[in-house]
Amino acid sequence: MNILLTFIASGLFFILTFIVDTLGAKLIFLFIAFLLFKWGSHQIQLIENGKEEEIKKETEKLLQEFIHSQSTISDDYLNALLLDEASQTLFIATRENLETGFDVKEFLFNEIYESSIEEDGKQIALISRGGLLGGTLLDDGGNSLVYIMEPENNKKNDTEETEDISKDIVSKLSLKLVVDDLASPIIEYVFLESEEKIDKDSDEYKDAAKECKKWHQMISVLIKRHDLLNKVIIKRYEDTNNVI
User: Fold this and answer.
1) Three-class SS state of 138
2) Is position 193 within any domain?
3) Which phi-psi region, left, alpha or beta, contains residue 88 (left: φ > 0; alpha: ψ -120 to 50)?
4) What is the pLDDT of residues 113-171, one digit of tens each?
5) Which domain holds residue 205?
6) Given this model, what pLDDT does residue 4 score?
7) Per the structure, how many domains does the chain have?
8) How far apart are CA 226 and CA 217, in angstroms?
9) Are residues 15 and 121 in the same domain?
10) Which of 203, 226, 241 lies closest to 110, judged by CA?
11) Farthest-apart Cα atoms in the chain, separation
């Protein structure tokens, strides 16, 4: 109510600038109107920040149900990635709105087959089981286990679009994972999405890219760790057979 009165008072002082005759009075009333408007806007921002902080705390409290050592939460608080090194588990949490709880999928580290970073649907980084860039589960790679057909418009117009779209702007940045789930093998976690293109030099993009790269690197380590473990197991099996 006080904020509403502040904006009303600001409007009244602004109207008075057109009523009074002297320039000095006009400037004074205009200055007062500006100060009242700025103060009201500041109070609204404080309230919004308080609400967001409350939503953040409630979201973090909901996610505490799942023991984790690393986490990232989307700006709209509707999605989250959680990772627990002790139980070797990755959690993908999603919800429809802020009033509902999270639906959570769990995957053991050895159930993660591939991780890639995509900008506007184009891969800029990829690691998959068997080696870096050595056969992707997302396309027709040599060692692919799963083949997903690309949309025709992406195949036919890829070259033309590359020429038209600047490399310095982007509208979507996401992390894509291939997991051991026949019903939904590909999971996309969006770190940045905007209706308008965003400059890569902007803080918004840099923050999102930093967090996305961090998670891609962590999951890449997990994938390579299990690759090495599998090689050790196979080597021991072969050595045992040779001895026999």
Assistant:
1) coil
2) yes
3) left
4) 999 999 998 999 999 887 544 444 454 433 333 333 344 455 455 555 544 455 789 99
5) 110-236
6) 78
7) 2
8) 14
9) no
10) 226
11) 108
